[in-house]
Design goal:
The chain has 227 residues and is mostly helical. Helix content is 70%, strand content 0%. The protein starts with a helix and ends with a helix.
């Protein structure tokens, strides 16, 4: 059963009046967990897309780049997006709900924040209100400033990039510790590992860009050490 088939069932629950909160409460364990991840991306993404005052076609298209939505399911995806956008609950309430849902694995929260960054720059600019939005989501998720800075530098042009932020290590850490952090980051990007922790197969596409950033960071740090 495809993820979007399961989302159809979730949308049916929405249509019956259960509401997005109830759907997220029920979708906590595999195989539904990947459905919950998808709905979480759409819900927070809808809130973020309005952070700069408008939702553009490019921002909606960005979802298609993360999630391969079959034509027959586009209406269902759009319905979840629009419900989240119109809901009276603030984005911080959604973020806390999602943090509780995925509290066992911060890597899923990093995956989600990465998807939100992808949407934030889809319209060709990074608005200050989007920056505040994403910084607050990162804080609620408990991901820390280094993770936020590394993601912002990956997606937003002309933002200074620190290779130590990318690997989550201190500049004065022993080179062997940095090497271990690099290897672990590479392993965490493996598609099988990402799917195993509940990331939809379509969203794994973003990991290709992450892996390039991780390897480049290691190359920069090791070159500095050798100099």
């Amino acid at each position: 059963m495809s993820i979007w088939t399961r989302i159809t069932a979730a949308v049916s629950a929405l249509a019956s009046g259960e509401g997005l909160w109830g759907v997220l409460d029920r979708l906590r364990t595999p195989p539904e967990r990947s459905v919950a991840f998808t709905i979480a991306v759409i819900a927070l993404g809808a809130k973020m897309a309005k952070a700069d005052g408008q939702v553009t076609r490019n921002e909606v298209t960005a979802f298609r780049q993360i999630f391969a939505i079959p034509p027959a399911e586009e209406a269902n995806a759009a319905r979840v997006f629009n419900l989240a956008r119109q809901d009276v609950a603030g984005f911080d309430a959604y973020a806390r709900k999602i943090k509780a849902m995925f509290r066992d694995d911060d890597r899923i929260l990093v995956d989600l924040l990465e998807g939100l960054f992808h949407v934030s720059v889809a319209d060709g600019r990074y608005h200050p209100r989007e920056d505040l939005f994403l910084a607050e989501v990162a804080r609620i998720f408990g991901l820390g400033d280094r993770c936020f800075r590394a993601l912002r530098a990956r997606f937003v042009p002309d933002v200074p990039r620190d290779p130590y932020d990318v690997l989550g290590v201190e500049p004065d850490a022993p080179i062997e510790d940095i090497r271990l952090a690099w290897k672990q980051a590479v392993r965490d990007c493996h598609p099988d590992r990402m799917i195993a922790r509940g990331v939809p197969e379509e969203a794994v596409k973003l990991a290709e860009r992450r892996l390039i950033d991780i390897n480049r960071a290691w190359e920069e740090i090791s070159a500095r050490q050798a100099a």
